Amino acid sequence: MAIETFTWPTERGEAAEIQYRTREARFAGGYRQVVGDGPNNREDRYPVTLTGSAAELRTILAFFDRHAGAKAFLWTPPLGGTGLFTCADPRPTPIGAGLFKLSATFARAFHP
């Protein structure tokens, strides 16, 4: 089965969370040694928001249901560079007049 692509436009303005996993050893005299933890030690997460009708958000939620928080999909973050991401926390909120806001966090995933 082919990897699906998340194509819906997201609202901009949320700050990405970028963190590097490292391992550190401390020695006498204040000396320390730090190395990256594995080949993919950069972890990045992107809070996203979408606004639309109930029908539009049902389609997006069905996309997330197919991936169930574990199966990765393709997405291009704001600074570019299409990659694999997962979404384990979609949060739909009614805002009135038949519109809904969907908030979620996309976390970088890697192929084994």
Automatic annotation (TrEMBL):
InterPro entries: Phage_lambda_TipM. This is Phage minor tail.
